[in-house]
Design brief:
Order of helices and strands: EHEEEEHEEE
Number of helices: 2
Strand content: over 45%
Shape: globular
Distance between the termini: 20 Å
Strand order of the largest sheet: 4-5-2-3-8
Radius of gyration: 13 Å
Number of strands: 8
Helix content: 10-25%
Largest sheet: 5 strands, mixed
């Protein structure tokens, strides 16, 4: 599975405090162009029917089961006012 550091969870919870509706974090693989893949992390108000939900210390994270082979082993962190991803997958670009 993938993980979120405590700093990333705290940052997400801080963002969610300002929202009036409950939200999820969507973690997925985006096809940028041709065969190029990139990680994508975004806030969303609703889940798609095929997405799974995992909870990290009160933060609900959505992921699509088809993306799991590329999400597996990654770590999402937050430092210096930005998120970054540590990835063991050389074929997927981090943002």
């Amino acid at each position: 599975m993938f993980t979120f550091t405590s700093e990333a969870i705290e940052a997400i919870q801080s963002f969610q405090k300002d929202e009036t509706t409950p939200s999820y974090v969507r973690y997925r693989i985006a096809n940028v162009c041709c065969n190029q893949m990139q990680y994508d992390l975004a806030m969303t108000a609703s889940a798609m029917p095929q997405e799974k939900i995992i909870n990290f210390n009160g933060v609900d994270v959505l992921y699509h089961p088809a993306d799991l082979k590329y999400l597996e082993g990654t770590e999402i962190d937050y430092k210096d006012d930005g998120f970054f991803i540590r990835s063991p997958h050389p074929l997927v670009a981090t943002f």
